[in-house]
Design a protein that fits this description.
Rossmann fold, OB fold (Dihydrolipoamide Acetyltransferase, E2P), about 425 residues, binds 5'-deoxyadenosine, 5-stranded mixed beta barrel, binds iron/sulfur cluster, pyruvate-formate lyase- activating enzyme, about 25% strand
């Protein structure tokens, strides 16, 4: 039976969120509809993440839980990076999986669904030269804050990371396609766009780099804010840094993963930057935009990490004073060079280091939030809060900000920051910056 309703569950990074939205648009274009809350969908797409921990095991147990009370199952599509890594093996490991589709092949999902409904078990993990983006329908509706993938894949080959294997080589979408998609998102309601890429600052279209793209997008009327993520420290060129000073729509927030504060660990990670070159990049960003919020990613317990290496990571945290951060225990990924390195670090050591790192990071993010108290700024209202009359929006520095207001979702609202919490701000509304 051909399915008529679907549900997509996305795990992991923002690019998976974006891919999930595009798959939903594609299935809708082909006559299917999202299942309503509480209803059993005919098709479930698990859009999986493979970056850390027991990703594949988690995906298989999620698949197992899709069995309904009466023992029947929906049509199941395994998508995302676990699908890419497992390929046809997924069919062998679970009889419940009907479709296996990788991140570069999901434009073929509708035909794969038709084939699966007729009893086939299609697999597509190809990384075709033709861009899936050309085969996807145009964007129509959008929330106030939208994602837009501009670059995919990675050629850096950090020794711990699966991304070069699951998302493939670095590829950039053409500028014209990105600008067209941004216009469509703004027409559909977006006021903020976050440009996504595994190495977003390696984006290029001929001589045009990410800075040029940001400047082109800033010309779109109705688009109020631009962000981009994730940047690689080795690709932070002067032009991009200058854009923080010169393009008012580019928000003062830079996610720049460092992973470790020890040069010998950075070398073993094949990071292609040093502690010193990283800190100089941060100085350049702060010179261009003194209020810029810096966020980072960290890995503790990389093979061979000594106590001194770890303390160097604590030192770089103090030197940078991160506004926000994501920190992880090293997780050996099958097929990556680090997985077979000697001197893997015991779990108990990693646990202890992660606790210490997170405590230090929390001090800095609270300090950053406290320093915002008393400022007048603006937020983009994105959703209602738990309390009646309360709305939540993001500050320019990406803090979730709570405010009492009748301003609807999508409003740019001027606010006065009155309160700081570990992961959010409280504010009072000043006046509506503009009608939504
Ligand atoms: N183990 C732990 N963390 C990892 N990351 C990537 N690969 C691994 C791994 N094998 C983290 C890095 C990266 C973020 C997206 O995930 O910090 O920046
Ligand atoms: Fe992975 Fe390194 Fe590429 Fe980031 S830069 S996606 S951590 S290989």
């Amino acid at each position: 039976m051909t399915p008529t309703t679907f549900r997509i569950k996305s795990f992991g990074c923002q690019m998976n969120v974006y891919d999930g939205e595009r798959m939903a648009e594609l299935l809708s274009e082909h006559g299917m509809a999202p299942a309503s809350d509480g209803a059993e969908p005919d098709l479930v797409v698990l859009n999986t993440c493979h970056i850390r921990e027991k990703a594949a095991e988690k995906a298989y147990s999620d698949v197992g839980r899709l069995r309904r009370e009466d023992g029947s199952t929906p049509l199941v599509a395994l998508a995302g990076c676990v699908a890419q890594a497992e390929g046809a093996e997924a069919h062998r490991r679970s009889g419940l999986i009907d479709i296996v589709v990788g991140p570069q092949a999901y434009h073929r999902l509708p035909e794969m669904v038709t084939a699966a409904a007729a009893g086939a078990r299609p697999v597509d993990t190809a990384m075709p030269a033709i861009s899936k983006f050309d085969a996807l329908p145009a964007r129509r509706r959008s929330g106030p804050a939208a994602f837009l993938t501009v670059q995919e894949g990675c050629d850096k080959f950090c020794t711990y990371c699966v991304v070069p294997y699951t998302r493939g080589a670095e590829t950039s979408r053409p500028a014209a396609d990105i600008v067209a998609e941004a216009h469509a998102l703004v027409d559909g309601g977006a006021r903020e766009i976050t440009l996504l890429g595994q190495n977003v600052n390696a984006w290029a279209d001929g001589a045009l780099g990410l800075a040029g793209l940001v400047r082109a997008l800033a010309k779109i009327d109705g688009l109020e804010r631009i962000r981009f993520t994730t940047s690689h420290p080795a690709d932070m060129d002067d032009e991009l840094i200058a854009a923080f000073a010169e393009v008012p729509k580019l928000m003062p927030y830079l996610h720049l993963p460092v992973q470790s504060g020890s040069d010998s660990i950075l070398k073993a990670m094949n990071r292609s930057h040093s502690v010193d070159s990283y800190l100089r990049t941060i100085d350049r960003a702060r010179a261009a935009r003194p209020d810029i919020a810096i966020s980072g990613d960290f890995i503790v317990g990389f093979p061979g990490e000594t106590e001194a290496d770890f303390e160097a990571t604590l030192s770089i945290v103090d030197a940078v004073r991160y506004a926000a951060a994501y920190s992880f225990k090293y997780s050996p990924r099958p097929g990556t060079p680090a997985a077979t390195m000697e001197s893997q670090i015991p779990a108990s050591v990693m646990d202890h280091r992660l606790q210490r790192l997170q405590a230090r990071l929390a001090e800095h993010s609270l300090a950053f939030n406290c320093a915002c108290i008393g400022r007048d700024t603006s937020i983009l209202v994105e959703r209602s809060g738990r309390r009646p009359g309360q709305m939540i929006g993001k500050s320019p520095w990406l803090q979730s900000t709570f405010v009492e207001t009748t301003a609807p979702i999508g409003t740019m609202l001027d606010v006065h920051v009155t309160e700081a919490l570990p992961n959010s701000l409280g504010a009072t509304a000043l006046r509506q910056a503009e009608a939504a």
